[in-house]
């Protein structure tokens, strides 16, 4: 036995074949939650239905005492109050956020961590002030390369005690749609979504959108913190350094038709013409096509796409299906304008991140 | 193989010894969610942190077209619009709701269903109009015994297709604190909490607080629907008719001290004097005492209780602990004024309902 940190933090591992979900994973599943798939009906996800993943605890921050520190390789370090931020120009962006671990629990073998199936997603209207102008006011040094964002949430992970911190390449941080957001869906940011202020980086997986933001640190070398260098890596083995997780790969989800069974969530519907609907998104480029299979990926037909409401918000789709009695496996897959297409089979990786293989939805037609 | 209903609905069962949580249970855990335990800090649970259990799908109801039908053994059947309800006298009650299945996944053997650990609870301010006055206006027949409440949510459960429906004894339905609620925490009822109108029955487990309410049916015989006669029974075997689940048994929860490990949720804190805090509630009577054990139930000492803010809302408690280095199992138990006390060991039942054995929280002190 080593330190306290080793004692409470098990090493990363992959489940044995057939191993069920453990109580540890269940504890995560009970506190974090996905989007109930019927909530795909909403263009903008109502508060409380948007997916939620908290690494440590939701901190209790006093908005009156909160300050955002802008430091590091800048000409004029800043310390901003909430009133300071709110006095700045305001914009609203509709953005789809997805957890990088979405789909993890469907992988075989299963990486042991937050056990998401398909539902770690949501779309909200985020309001706040552009980060780029705050950085301009601070005066970013020409030698800067990364920006580190620090949250107020603290805990241990794989033996490393830390305050949640993520680095972002400077060019991404300077995009004009990256926000210091203090409102969600036109109301105050809820505690669990990062109150009083969080970062929004449209197009990137959730880990980049640092909640409970307290620090913005401009760096002259690449950020080497845990959440960039150890976690959120697409890697094949424990000693593979892997590739960093960045933008959201395309995904389509089907709004489940018919009615569910409580326990299995299998859907039951009547035969006849069924309008299947759903959402599709990508953080790389607009979604260009959605295809639907009603025979578990044997054949695919194109769905009709709704408008793209914002560059990084999901778009709706619809597909008319003549449902015959029997059991069917429905699947949907999206392709974006940058050429990324959802795989039908898993592209396994050890952390189960950035995995976008096509949803499988069982329906029974009577 | 029998009917479609049999095909999609597995019979109720208990997990094998050592059997992990299945994908079916995980699908429930990913869409339903508990209160992240650090949110015990709030007197009133912010929206989105309150526990949530949806039997089937969250329905999409149009408030403009919504009607509440009051029918059955009444002199004057009613059909009320949302405006009709809102024009009636309004009251607000602070109420702690808990799922009857809370604690289920900690039982051994584990009943296979929504796998709650300790966190299926929340406290909200519910506003609406008293049901009793609506029933008085309809004129309840002297022969009435039960009232059946029908939601708009539909699905299958254990082979039975149904619209969610629960019966309540007439005497309970006529209590002056039973509400037709259309607001939560001073805002509109969110879709997932029953919009536009839900029932609130202070003191009872969650299954009684019918969401998406559309029908109130006064009955001259005991309600014999699935959710009263088959589900929500304290029973020891498949053929035991069991006893109905009614009011919430007392429970105390500890707000986890220190910081968590991401994966295990074990808490790490520094040695010294630690103020432990938490909440305790009962649906039978006010909480009269909370005791804390820092040695896994070996010895117990009383906590100091905060005020009881409302008859059926949780009350806070605090306990000063001198924490010495090492690993400790913290437990808390509540007793109410009606003499119910939380057991330290499980009181197993086949559905894993109304089970309130004391929380166990692992902390490592350094």
Question: Explain this structure to me?
Answer:
2 copies of one chain form a homodimer. In chain A, 10% of the residues lie in helices and 35% in strands. Chain A has 366 residues and is mainly beta. Chain A has 2 domains: 4-231, Oxidoreductase, molybdopterin-binding domain (Sulfite Oxidase, Chain A, domain 2, Alpha-Beta Complex); 251-365, Immunoglobulin-like. Chain A has a 6-stranded mixed beta sheet, with no helix packed on it. Chain A has a 5-stranded mixed beta sheet with strand order 2-1-10-5-6. In chain A, 51% of the residues are buried. The model of chain A has no long low-confidence stretch (mean pLDDT 96).
List the topology elements:
2 copies of one chain form a homodimer.
Chain A: H1 4-8, H2 23-31, E1 67-72, E2 78-81, H3 82-86, E3 91-98, E4 121-130, H4 131-138, E5 146-157, E6 160-169, H5 170-173, E7 179-184, E8 187-188, E9 198-200, E10 213-219, H6 226-229, E11 233-234, E12 243-244, E13 251-254, E14 259-260, E15 267-269, E16 272-281, E17 287-293, E18 301-302, E19 304-305, E20 315-323, E21 326-336, E22 361-365
